[in-house]
Amino acid sequence: xxxxxxxxxxxxxxxxxxxxxxxxxxxxxxxxxxxxxxxxxxxxxxxxxxxxxxxxxxxxxxxxxxxxxxxxxxxxxxxxxxxxxxxxxxxxxxxxxxxxxxxxxxxxxxxxxxxxxxxxxxxxxxxxxxxxxxxxxxxxxxxxxxxxxxxxxxxxxxxxxxxxxxxxxxxxxxxxxxxxxxxxxxxxxxxxxxxxxxxxxxxxxxxxxxxxxxxxxxxxxxxxxxxxxxxxxxxxxxxxxxxxxxxxxxxxxxxxxxxxxxxxxxxxxxxxxxxxxxxxxxxxxxxxxxxxxxxxxxxxxxxxxxxxxxxxxxxxxxxxxxxxxxxxxxxxxxxxxxxxxxxxxxxxxxxxxxxxxxxxxxxxxxxxxxxxxxxxxxxxxxxxxxxxxxxxxxxxxxxxxxxxxxxxxxxxxxxxxxxxxxxxxxxxxxxxxxxxxxxxxxxxxxxxxxxxxxxxxxxxxxxxxxxxxxxxxxxxxxxxxxxxxxxxxxxxx
Length: 493
What we know:
CATH topology of one domain: Acetylcholine Binding Protein, Chain: A
Strand content: 15-25%
Oligomer: single chain
C-alpha cells in the first residue's frame, strides 16, 4: 500500500514538472511569436525613406550623447586627432510604437536596414569607422512609445586646425562637429541629450596634453543647400612641456654654456677654440632637426624655433668673438720678428748659420728688453753735503744720501684708437707687421685679451636676461589665451 502511494505521488510530481516546463516553453513561444507578429505588423506599411514626422509640420528631433573611451594621439604634423567612443542617438518614431507586456525590444542590427535612421556624419571627420570585432558593435532598441536607441562604437579621426606660434607652450582647441548630411533644420534637428551629454571613461588621460574643458553647443550652419542643425563639442587642450624641457631646452642651454669655455682658452689655441665652436653649432643643428620632425612646415616661427635661433646666435657669436680676438688682438705667437735687413746682418755675423742667427736675435731682444738706464741723484741732506758750499779743502763728511733709481723708457708715438680700428678693418699688412714687431720687442703675452674678459661677463648675463624675457613672454601669452571656435567652413572641406 505504501509503495503504491509513493509511486502515485512520484508520477504526479513528474507530471507537474513536465507541465511547468511545457507551459514555460509555450509562454516563450507565444512571446517570441508575439514579437515576430508585432514587428511584422509594425513594418507592414512602414516606409523607411520617410522621416518619422513626415507631413506633420515639425522636424524630427535627434538627441545625442557621447561616451569617450580613449583619446589620442593628437598629431601636429597632420593637424588631426583620434578618439574611441560610444556614439548614441535617440529619436521617436511613432510608427514603431506598440502595446503589450514588453516595454522595449532589443533588435538585431539587420533591422536597421528596414527602419528610418538619421544620416549623421562628421563635418570635420577624416577617417571614421565602426568596430566590427567580433561582430559589428551596434545596438538597436525600441520602446513601446516608439522611442529608438541607436548606439555604436566608433573610432573617429577628425581635423584639428592648430596655431603653433607658442609651441610647445601652446593650447589647442580640437572640435568635433556632427549633423545631417541631407536633411535641413526644417526636417531634422540635432540636440544634446542633457547637460552631461559628453562624458569620459574614468581614468582616461592623454599622453601629450591635459584636457582643460570640453564645452559643447547646438547651432545652425548655413550651406549652399540650406540651413542645417549642427552639434559641436570642443576639446580644449594644454600641452605638456616636460618632454621638451628635458629633450630640447636643457640640452640647448648646456651646449651654449659649453661654448663659453672658449673664453677661458688661450687665444693661441686656435684649433681648440674653433673646434669647440664648430662642435657646439653642429650639435645644436642636430637637436633642431630632431625637434622639428613631427611639426608641419608652417610659415611662421614657433616658440621653440625662437629659442633654437637664440642658442644658434650665441654659439655663432662665440666663434665670431674668437675671430675678432684673433684678428684684432693676436699680433704674434711669441716668435721673434726679424726684418730682412736685420736677418742679413745676423747671417753675416754668424757665418751663414741660420740657427745661430736666430739664437743671436733672441739674445739681443732679451737683453734689449732687460736693459735699464739708471740715473743716480744724491740730494743734499744738509748744507754741508751741498755740492755748491763744499770746498775742496774740506774733508768729506758722512751724510745721509737718498738713492733714487729712475727707469727711462723710449718715447713712442701712439696711434689713435679710431685709426687702429680702421687699420684692422681694412686689413693693413704694414700696420699688422708693425704691431708684430712691437709685440716681439716688448715681450707681450698673447694669451690675455680684453675682448675675452668682457665676453666672460657679457655673454652669460645677456643670455640669462633673454631667457628671462622669453619665458615671461610665453607664460603671459598663455594666461591671455582665449578659446575660440574655428569657423566651420574651414573644417567641412
